[in-house]
Amino acid sequence: MRAIQVKEYVKRPEDLAITTVPDPTPSPDEYLIAIHCTATNFFDLLQIQGKYQHQPSLPWISGSEFSGAVLQTPSSLPNNLPPKYAIGAKVFGASQGGYATKIAVKEDRLRPVPKGWSFFDAAGLFVTAPTGYAALVTRAHIKKGDYVLIHAAAGGVGLAAVQIAKAFGATVIATAGTQHKLNIAKSYGADHGIIYKDPTWPDQVKLLTPQGRGVDIVFDPVGLIAPSIKCTAFNGRLLVIGFAGGEIEKIAMNRVLLKNISLLGLHWGAYASLQPETVEEVWRGLFELMEGGNFRGTCFTDREFVGLE
Fold first, then answer.
1. What does the angle CA 294 – CA 295 – CA 297 come to, to the nearest 5 degrees?
2. Which of 35, 146, 217, 291 is 20 to 30 A (C-alpha) from 304?
3. CB count in 10 Å sphere of residue 24
4. Shortest CA distance to 202 belongs to which of 233, 179, 178?
């Protein structure tokens, strides 16, 4: 098969090379999937540079999120359960090795492509969508009427969060680095947009909230918790999603006390082993949103890439 194999760490995606490698050999409890579409995430960039918290032993195939069709089903599943997905079934998922034409993957890393969705629509769902849902719903208990500040709102996780917040009746204030990105966030439902290169953005956020009280929830995959506290309401909840900005912040905890706010971390990947029942709750909620037309794939169409090359 064709794949983007990492034999040594690189500085940028342009340094990667496509090669021919043997097809994966599924273990008895794995599916073999023909990949039709694959997604790109910030952690993919970190991983090829050797900077991610989960680094496979070299050489390895890069990429994670994908969508495709089942080529082969498991021959032996725990408790002699039958496979959920038949040969030919359309699925999406995530596992190490998404930048390839085939992948072997366990059943818990797959979900069925939603009815009416294309492979293109579903390719970027498996990591970004549940991250947004678990953060806003499971951790922050979002409710109708909340004001929600979403940083990097035009990214995959950000666009998922925008749609989930709107589906729960919140007012969404999106931030991004350019007007073009803000336009994308608004096309997914964001009510307001602010470019956070302007140092006055916390003040601008407060002006958009009732009586200038600040937002109820902050969704932060960038590393902007400290300045976001300035525009967070009393009793607010700040979600620590990631550090795409490159630096891990140090927070003055007296500010947390004085504003009576909560700092909430989210390690979505840990739920599978530590709290698997929550994983199923999150996916049930997401499929309800998708089936109700309140959530769509986070696909960028500025440029189209066909094939691994």
1. 155
2. 291
3. 18
4. 233
Can you list the positions of beta strands (E) in the chain?
Answer: 2-6, 18-20, 30-38, 60-61, 65-72, 90-94, 102-106, 110-112, 147-150, 171-176, 192-195, 215-220, 232-240, 262-265
Are the C-beta atoms of 153 and 176 separated by less than 8 Å? yes
Q: What is the pLDDT of residues 216-243, one digit of tens each?
A: 999 999 999 999 999 999 999 999 999 8
Please answer whether residues 98 and 66 qualify as being in contact, where contact means their C-beta atoms are separated by less than 8 angstroms.
yes
- Give the three-class secondary structure for 175: strand
DSSP assignment of 107-144: GGGEEEPPTT--HHHHTT-TTHHHHHHIIIIIIT---T
CA separation for the pair 146, 69 (Å, rounded): 39
User: What are the pLDDT digits (tens) for 175-184?
Assistant: 999 999 999 9
| d(C-alpha 276, C-alpha 21), whole Å | 34
Nearest to 124 by CA among 307, 295, 308: 295
The strand order across the sheet containing 102-106 reads 102-106, 30-38, 65-72, 90-94, 110-112
List 232's β-bridge partners, or say none.
Answer: 215
Q: Cβ distance 238 to 262 under 8 Å?
A: yes
